[in-house]
Every structure is written in structure tokens, then in C-alpha cells.
């Protein structure tokens, strides 16, 4: 077999198949491989005329079809299947070759795999790919980690197949070494959870408090989508809300079981945030909200619990309330992104990745699920001040939140008095208020810790570590 393919894709389920087609449509010769060979043949039969494919049926033939250094994209189920594929292909590769894992791997696995393959001279490029199957075909947002050398060889190809932002910039950049790409993809998904939950809470308020129908709420979201909330998620939310179920003629959203599922990247984001000590409360509440929704038996057993007497607003009040909800949604969204970017900064520091936060925001402007007009603003904020301690420290975001905060508070207060659960709205506001507080009750917490565990405390008026003899005469000792 002659080595003509510039890139190869193994794992031809929806994502791999569409990525392979994307490479081929962009003029690359693509070697194809899948454990079940029927899928390889089906791809060539259906889409063979889209470009140059080299179908192979064995690992040896696949590797032989690739020009050197070999670029081998793995798009299989994350976890053990990825290790199995690496174990199958690594012995067939040579120093300088690249294995590009485009699956949703945990970044710790990516770090392990990169380390193991480095000794063999193989570049392992853990790569986040966002945009679902449509993105994979027409241009995803791509978050590659791995070595600089691998990006020099691979980058131009990824730039070609990636989504392009409105200004034409490719939605891909070298994120950083080893697991950096998969870490950033994980946080992207965490932010996605928060964004979706905030939109869902806005919907619930517009439905239960303002009394709008799903079709009316779809129109409200369409209007919002022409302003600062302009984003893919708001756009598809309007589509989902205006959809009518053909079988019952009811709004689609009323016939779907209200139990949200998850694949795990949101949970990982929160688990890792806890390890890093980063408060991602908006993302965490979004993950917990899905969890609560899935506890069907617990919810059933709790329906009798008392709540407030709820009332629906009149027409004029409802319109004004909808404007307030827009303010609340925007303010909470800024906080959720602030938390996500804090986590990326913390991960970057912990693992020495040197991630450019402005570039991360820039490559999320197109192709990915959280693409939104306001990522342009985040990107500019970090470009102007790469060491920005928090997005909330950016003057323009701080100004917008200042303008939104009265409505933000009113909306959450209304939700509380009406008994409508808005965990992500409330958590993001609490985070905002915690950050701006002159004093937090953490001083009292320190006192309690010192009382029961002699954990010591620091004073605000002088240096040192102190302990009060709580069980004795309450004198203070210094250690
Ligand atoms: P799946 O995650 O459903 O994986 C199916 C593929 O894995 C098939 O090609 C299958 O081969 C292969 N595979 C399995 Br399962 N076990 C294997 C093994 N032991 N050895 C070799 N191959 C094995 O596919 P997907 O939905 O296309 O996703 C691919 C990756 O992309 C996943 O990591 C996913 O998390 C990630 N991702 C998905 C999306 C999305 O929207 N779906 C978005 C972003 C990232 P077979 O045909 O022989 O069974």
C-alpha cells in the first residue's frame, strides 16, 4: 500500500465519520479505519465522491496508508476503548508520528497517555472537539493539547477544517502541553451546563411567573437573540420551545420527560474544580439541577411539601418582568463564564500549561455549543489585560452587571417568593455578592474551627498564627 494519506481517522461513528469527511472535503487524502469494517465500507459507499479516501481493514494497512510523520486521529468511545486503540496502534508507529485523540477523554488520562507515548517518541495530542456531529462535518471548535512540534505539523490542517469566527479567524489554537486541550474542553462543557441551566431557569420563570406559553417564550428568546445574548444555545432554545409534538399537538417541551441526563464532563468539571479549590458554583448547581431532576422517586415522594401561594403576573407586568429576566440571565451568564475561566487559569497554573485565556475565548466564538457574541468581549478583555484576575474585574463587564443588578436581584427574589427553583441564578448572584463583600462570615468559621479543632487562625491586624484557649481562660496564644 502506498503512503498517500495526510491524515487517518480510526473510529467511524458519527463524530469520526464526519471529521473524516470534513478533512476530505478540505482536500486532504484521508485514510479510514474502524473496528467494525462495515462502517468503513459504508462511509466510502455513501460519501466516497466527497474527496480522496483510502479505506483500510487492518491496523497495519491503516498505518501503512499514512504519509510520515503519521497523523492518526482516534475518534472512539472515551475510556478503555481509547487505551485499546492506542495499544493496538502504538507498536506500529515510529518516532515523530502523532496520535490525535479527539474523544472526550478525561485530561488526567490524556496526561498519562502523553507521558507513556513520549518515551517512544510519539506525540500524543489530546484534542477537545466541540460542535457535535454537525460541527465535526462543517467546522468544529478544536482544542488541541500536546507538544508544540505536533501543532506545527497538525495546526494548519486543523485550522482548515475548523469553524471560522465572524471575523474569519479559525476556531483552533494550540492550548498547551499534554492534557491542556482536554481540560479546556471539559471546562467548556461545564460552562455549557451552566448556560443551559440558566436558560432553563429563565424559561421556567417566564412560564410560571409571567404566564407565557412556550411559543410566546420562543418569541422572547428570538428577540433576545438579536441582542447581547446572541448565541447558539438561545437560538436552539427558541426552536425547541416553538416545536409542537406531532402525536399530541401539544408543545414539545410539555411531552418530554423532565429528567435531564448527562455524559459526565459537567461532573468532571465540578470534581476537578473542587480539587483545585475553584468556586464554580454556577456550574455545580447546573450539574446538581440535572441530578435533582433525575430523582423521580424522591420528587414523587416530595410533591406534597408546602410552597408559597403562587400568582401569575398581568400582561403589562409580564412584559416588564421578561425584560428583567433578560438582565438576570445576562448577569448570571457573565458570572458562570467568570467561574469557568477562573478554573482554566487555575488548571493552567497547577499544570504549568501557560494557557492564553483570550485565545480560548476566541476559539469558542464559532463551531462549539457555547458560541456566543459575547465571547468576542471576553477575548478582548483578556487581550487588553492578560493577567486579569477575574472577568468581573474587567471594567465593561463590571459596568454591565452594575446596570443589571437591581433586576437580577428582583428576579431571584421573585423566584424565591413564588417558589420557582432557580439554583444557578441564585448561586451566581451569591458568588458575585461574596466577591464584593467587605467582610465575609469566614472569620466566624475560623473561630468555630479553632474552637473545636484548634485549627488556629490569622488576625486581620497583625502577622502570625493564633489559637484561643477556648476550654480554658480564653487567652490567645501565638504559634
Ligand atoms: P461513540 O462514543 O459512540 O464510539 C463509537 C466508536 O468507538 C465506534 O467507532 C466503535 O467501533 C469504537 N470503539 C468502541 Br465503542 N470500543 C472500541 C474498541 N475497544 N476498539 C476500537 N474501537 C472501539 O462515537 P461518537 O459519538 O462518534 O464519539 C466519538 C468520540 O467523540 C467520543 O469520545 C465522544 O465522547 C466524543 N465526542 C462526541 C460528540 C458528540 O456530539 N457525539 C461531541 C464531541 C466529542 P465499532 O463501530 O466497531 O463499534
TrEMBL record:
Pathway: Carbohydrate degradation; pentose phosphate pathway; D-ribulose 5-phosphate from D-glucose 6-phosphate (oxidative stage): step 3/3. It comes from the Bacteria. One of its GO terms (molecular function) is phosphogluconate dehydrogenase (decarboxylating) activity. Residues 181-471 form the 6-phosphogluconate dehydrogenase C-terminal domain. Pfam families: 6PGD, NAD_binding_2. SMART domains: 6PGD. It is an enzyme of class 1 (oxidoreductase). This is 6-phosphogluconate dehydrogenase, decarboxylating. It comes from Streptomyces atroolivaceus. The lineage of its organism: Bacteria, Bacillati, Actinomycetota, Actinomycetes, Kitasatosporales.
Amino acid at each position: 500500500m502506498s503512503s498517500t494519506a495526510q491524515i487517518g481517522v480510526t473510529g467511524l461513528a458519527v463524530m469520526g465519520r464526519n471529521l473524516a469527511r470534513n478533512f476530505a472535503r478540505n482536500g486532504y487524502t484521508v485514510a479510514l479505519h474502524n473496528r467494525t469494517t462495515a462502517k468503513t465500507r459504508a462511509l466510502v459507499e455513501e460519501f466516497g465522491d466527497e474527496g480522496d479516501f483510502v479505506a483500510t481493514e487492518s491496523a497495519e494497512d491503516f498505518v501503512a496508508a499514512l504519509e510520515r510523520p503519521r497523523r492518526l486521529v482516534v475518534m472512539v468511545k472515551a475510556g478503555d476503548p481509547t487505551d485499546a486503540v492506542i495499544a493496538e496502534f502504538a507498536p506500529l508507529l515510529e518516532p515523530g508520528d502523532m496520535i490525535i485523540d479527539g474523544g472526550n477523554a478525561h485530561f488526567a488520562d490524556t496526561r498519562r497517555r502523553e507521558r507513556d507515548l513520549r518515551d517512544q517518541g510519539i506525540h500524543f495530542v489530546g484534542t477537545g472537539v466541540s460542535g457535535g456531529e454537525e460541527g465535526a462535518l462543517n467546522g468544529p471548535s478544536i482544542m488541541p493539547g500536546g507538544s508544540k512540534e505536533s501543532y506545527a505539523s497538525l495546526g494548519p490542517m486543523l485550522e482548515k477544517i475548523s469553524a471560522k469566527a465572524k471575523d474569519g479567524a479559525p476556531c483552533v489554537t494550540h492550548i498547551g502541553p499534554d492534557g491542556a486541550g482536554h481540560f479546556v474542553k471539559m471546562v467548556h462543557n461545564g460552562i455549557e451546563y451552566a448556560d443551559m441551566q440558566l436558560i432553563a431557569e429563565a424559561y421556567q420563570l417566564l412560564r410560571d411567573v409571567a404566564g407565557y406559553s412556550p411559543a410566546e417564550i420562543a418569541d422572547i428568546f428570538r428577540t433576545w437573540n438579536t441582542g447581547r445574548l446572541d448565541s447558539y444555545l438561545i437560538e436552539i432554545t427558541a426552536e425547541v420551545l416553538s416545536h409542537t409534538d406531532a402525536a399530541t399537538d401539544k408543545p414539545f417541551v410539555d411531552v418530554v420527560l423532565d429528567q435531564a441526563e448527562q455524559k459526565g464532563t459537567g461532573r468532571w468539571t465540578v470534581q476537578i474544580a473542587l480539587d483545585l479549590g475553584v468556586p464554580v458554583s454556577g456550574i455545580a448547581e447546573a450539574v446538581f439541577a440535572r441530578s435533582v431532576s433525575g430523582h423521580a422517586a424522591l420528587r414523587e415522594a416530595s410533591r406534597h411539601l408546602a410552597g408559597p401561594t403562587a400568582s401569575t403576573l398581568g400582561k403589562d407586568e409580564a412584559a416588564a418582568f421578561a425584560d428583567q429576566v433578560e438582565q438576570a440571565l445576562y448577569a448570571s451568564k457573565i458570572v458562570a463564564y467568570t467561574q469557568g475561566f477562573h478554573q482554566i487559569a487555575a488548571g493552567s497554573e497547577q499544570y504549568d500549561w501557560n494557557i492564553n485565556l483570550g485565545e480560548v475565548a476566541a476559539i469558542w466564538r464559532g463551531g462549539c455549543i457555547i458560541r456566543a457574541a459575547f465571547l468576542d468581549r471576553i477575548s478582548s478583555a483578556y487581550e487588553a489585560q492578560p493577567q486579569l484576575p477575574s472577568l468581573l474585574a474587567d471594567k465593561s463587564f463590571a459596568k454591565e452587571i452594575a446596570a443589571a443588578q437591581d433586576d437580577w436581584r428582583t428576579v431571584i427574589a421573585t423566584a424565591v417568593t413564588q417558589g420557582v427553583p432557580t439554583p444557578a441564578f441564585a448561586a451566581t448572584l451569591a458568588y458575585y455578592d461574596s466577591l464584593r463583600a467587605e467582610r465575609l462570615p469566614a472569620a466566624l468559621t475560623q473561630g468555630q474551627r479553632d474552637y473545636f479543632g484548634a485549627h488556629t487562625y490569622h488576625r486581620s491586624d497583625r502577622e502570625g498564627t493564633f489559637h484561643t484557649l477556648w476550654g480554658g481562660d480564653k487567652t490567645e496564644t501565638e504559634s
